[in-house]
Amino acid sequence: MTDELNDIDYLMTLDPMSLSTAEGTLGRKRLDAIIAYHRNQRAVKEAGGKRPKKDSGPAVKIDLQALGLKPVMPTIKRRI
Amino acid sequence: MKKANQPLSPFLPGTRIQYAWDSTSIGYIKTCPRLYQYIMLDGWTPKEDSVHLRFGQEYHKALEEYDGAKISGQNHEESVRSSILNLLHRIHDWNPDVSTRAGNYKNPRTLIQLVLDYLDKYRDDPAQTIIREDGSAATEVSFRFELDWGPEAGYQPTPIMMNAEGLEEPIDIRPGRITYVDKGSSIELKPVQGQPYILCGHLDRVVTFNDQIMVMDHKTTTTAAGSYYMNQWSPNNQMSLYTLAGQVVLGGVIKGVIISAAQILLDKPNAFERGFTFRTPAQTEEWIQDLRIHLHMAEQYATINYWPQNDTACDKFGGCKFRGVCSKDPSVREAFLKADFIKLPEEERWNPLKPR
Hints:
B: seven-stranded mixed β-sheet
């Protein structure tokens, strides 16, 4: 399973030109997913939760398939 | 021949005497003349990307674009989308080394988190951005104004003038100088040519807050933005200049600056604090008077082509980036500069006259 940290990294490294803001487009969904992810991260921290570690499982799940995406390249590892 | 859009040089032609100053370059010369020389005159910059600079620039730009979208009539969510989308465009290829402390705190993910947290926190901001006459938001307000004096080298004596005895005499027209004596009576001449000093820069945002017009300056920090943090802004070179600039640009109604600080936190929600720093007219006048002396000294350094070290400033602000150079014997400093720094071409060096 792809963990959520890599999912968001993947989403953020997509060609931004694909993140159209036109209503109803897949691109807008992707942009909204990035925004929703970060808002969720804030909510988790406000609730006293720690940042999820890379191997601790997703705190906020991003459904890449629903966004019409699946990683086609190795995910980028970042130590945050 | 100058290329189109190439900014003017901030230096008098053929000299290293700077006539156009912003808060950054004034800060360098006040902090340490050698620091000023390395950065402003010689163009040395660290080899690695400045994570702090990039992060700060992108943060400012994102907030500016949000303000612009809001003022153009978009609601909060649309303005957030617009700002974040443009931010993603700009940082698409930005990949700082997150194994360093700086990169761990300042990277694309923490940047988006910080921007979004700020925009949501101040969704109903009590500080309202002023709308300019052309309908645009008063964000990134560039200012440029002349002082009533200039570098002495910028004023050339007029060639010749007849005195009372009918003899030719050179006339020195440097400002404030009594230069021509006619049978014992002094004649004060005003400059008719020459380059005055110019102060320039950019105000992040001009706002109304509690019925007052204030400059707002955005800061990002990894430390707590409590009273210790806020105390650093008075006295402070940048905020004194911004107060003065606000008064010049907006006609004397600005009393100070709101510091809008964003603390980047990794395991807790980002924190935001605002503080105020005010300047009385006498304080502003004092700052200008002191600046006159600092700029005079800067011209003296350029005239003798030597910028001394201020060795009491090396440990300020987490340690000067040139400390490793200045600590070496003068004979080997150039080698250390070349090893750890890049010498930027003139057009890429810090230039207060460069538009954003």
